[in-house]
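A quick aside before the break. I want you to see a complete sequence-to-structure record at least once, exactly as it would be stored in a machine-readable document. Don't worry about memorizing anything.
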Amino acid sequence: MGRLIYQERTVVDIEDRLLSHLRIVVMNKLRRQESFMLNLPHPEHGKLSIWFHPATPIVMQFYGSRPPQIDKHLIEEMMEQASGPDGLTLPSTRV
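That is the input. The structure line, written in tokens, reads:
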């Protein structure tokens, strides 16, 4: 289980494999100076939406000992979704 920390105050636990794919998407979008919305299920409040912008501090922590295998098709799907009008939606996570 990995962890996404957004602006030092929002902490989201995400499975390492999914977080590894999200890291690649975030890296590519922000390197191109492209902001996007990330939508996550929230156990208490329904849904959490996070706006990613190149100037926003983001930390991703990985606790697994092995790097997960990357699925290029999943990266392409996530990139396409992140570029869409509703942003990128991840499956259930722990916030």
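Two observations worth writing down. The longest strand covers residues 36-42. The chain has a mean pLDDT of 89. We'll return to this after the break.
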